[in-house]
From TrEMBL:
Protein name as annotated: Hexosyltransferase
Cellular component GO terms, alphabetical: Golgi membrane
Species in which this protein is naturally found: Monopterus albus (Swamp eel)
UniProt key word Protease: no
Subcellular localization, as worded in the UniProt entry: Golgi apparatus membrane
Length: 387
């Protein structure tokens, strides 16, 4: 009886101390907690309980004359006949700043090689680069570094060789990415509306073109419409920390959650969607500079939601392995390794090695080890190992 009593007191004491400890930790870390957990909880509940974003559309709708200010920039480079007279399966925009000449050149000779795609995969894919105008500071910098050749002249020269640069005269900067997004939808609408799919990608994304083409051909044969695929962000809250690159002020976006959207690193939509998004950009306030979130707002305005593809990366690198190459669509963060990855990922023996019962079992085991590892984040989800 006595022992029991003491035991209970000890228990209560431990409880009390734990509570105090937790409370003090919470108090000390309140700010971070609020930014991370609380806003996510709020935003998730919002997304799943209220699940209505119609007022966003209403409050961001502005008169057409005003909305035009986000799109009526002069074209500095405009390969208007790029798609003419061809049955284009995919029009693929790569978002690239003027200075990234090497990345564009790497893309042209690897996954973005139109000649290769035509001859090996038997379809027409058009790869174009979306640019704004160069920064003055960069212009000066490049002047001294490139022996006096102005960066805009370099671009004109590059376009003369390849004919694949699309440029408008807004300043190319992170905070103008939404203008670049609008440029892409408007260009496809007016110059390449017959392409069956639209894609947008960062210039450090690796795209497994043979896998993507297979996938899109299949979808095209089934005549999909209202199609939007990528790595989906659901119920994401706006970031209110001023030191973040993605900081969005309350005045710009007062709600606790963004509509669902796909990661801007790479996503695909069908051509009917391009038309709808184009229409939405004619009446929406495009001041929100996070381009993939703005895409979500446009889609929300036309009643469209994205679907998930587990082999579209959410910002991380795919593991280097044949079992992954067999199914990968996109992977993010590749610059120096792009040539090697392209060679490896499209090696004819990948399909051979990974097929059959043994190949399948082996690859499942490998993928579990690679993707279900808790230290592997932002790439493909663990469940991809089982599909
Ligand atoms: C593109 O592919 C073709 C055919 O495979 C090849 O001949 C050509 O050299 C490649 N282009 C580049 C820039 O690597
Ligand atoms: C966006 O582009 C416009 C037009 O060139 C320019 O006036 C503005 O400063 C740019 N905004 C940013 C944040 O770079
Ligand atoms: C668009 O939104 C921005 C930022 O919220 C605001 O400053 C601007 O006045 C709005 N534009 C129009 C035409 O309402
Ligand atoms: C968004 O607003 C536009 C114009 O006000 C309207 O035509 C459209 O139906 C709205 N969309 C939704 C999903 O409410």
């Amino acid at each position: 009886m006595f022992v029991n009593f003491r035991w209970i007191r000890k228990c209560q004491c431990v409880q009390l101390m734990t509570t105090c400890l937790v409370l003090s930790v919470v108090m000390v870390c309140w700010e971070q907690l609020d930014d991370g957990i609380i806003s996510h909880v709020k935003s998730y509940s919002y997304r799943y309980v209220i699940n209505s974003f119609t007022y966003i559309n209403k409050s961001l709708t502005i008169p057409r004359e005003q909305a035009r200010s986000f799109s009526n920039f002069r074209y500095l480079l405009d390969p208007r006949d790029k798609c003419a007279g061809k049955d284009v399966l995919l029009l693929l925009f790569v978002k690239t700043p003027p200075k990234n000449t090497e990345r564009r050149s790497a893309i042209r000779s690897t996954w973005g090689n139109e000649t290769y795609i035509q001859s090996s995969l038997g379809v027409t894919v058009k790869v174009v680069f979306a640019l704004g105008s160069p920064k003055t500071k960069e212009e000066e910098l490049s002047w001294s570094m490139r022996g006096g050749v102005d960066i805009q002249e370099q671009l004109i020269h590059e376009d003369g060789l390849h004919g694949d640069l699309i440029q408008q005269d807004f300043l190319d900067s992170f905070y103008n990415l939404t203008l670049k997004l609008i440029l892409q939808f408007h260009w496809m609408h007016s110059r390449c509306a017959h392409a069956r799919f639209f894609m947008t990608a960062d210039d450090d994304v690796f795209i497994h073109m043979p896998n993507l083409v297979n996938y899109l051909q299949d979808l095209s044969n089934r005549g999909v419409t209202d199609f939007w695929v990528g790595y989906v962000h659901r119920g994401t809250p706006p970031i209110r920390r001023k030191d973040s690159k993605y900081y969005v002020p309350f005045e710009m976006y007062p709600w606790v959650s963004y509509p669902d959207y796909t990661a801007g690193s790479a996503y695909v939509v069908s051509s009917d969607v391009v038309d709808k998004i184009y229409q939405a950009t004619l009446t929406l306030n495009a001041s929100l500079y996070i381009d993939d979130v703005f895409m979500g707002i446009c889609a929300n305005a036309v009643g469209l939601s994205p679907q998930e593809h587990i082999y579209f990366s959410g910002g991380g690198k795919a593991p280097y392995h044949w079992c992954i190459y067999n199914q990968m669509m996109t992977s993010h963060g590749h610059v120096e390794d792009i040539y090697d990855l392209w060679k490896e990922a499209t090696h004819p023996q990948v399909k051979q090695w990974t097929s059959g019962l043994t190949g399948g079992l082996y690859c499942t085991a490998v993928k579990i080890a690679l993707l279900c590892n808790p230290f592997y984040v932002n790439g493909y989800p663990c469940k991809a190992a089982f599909l």
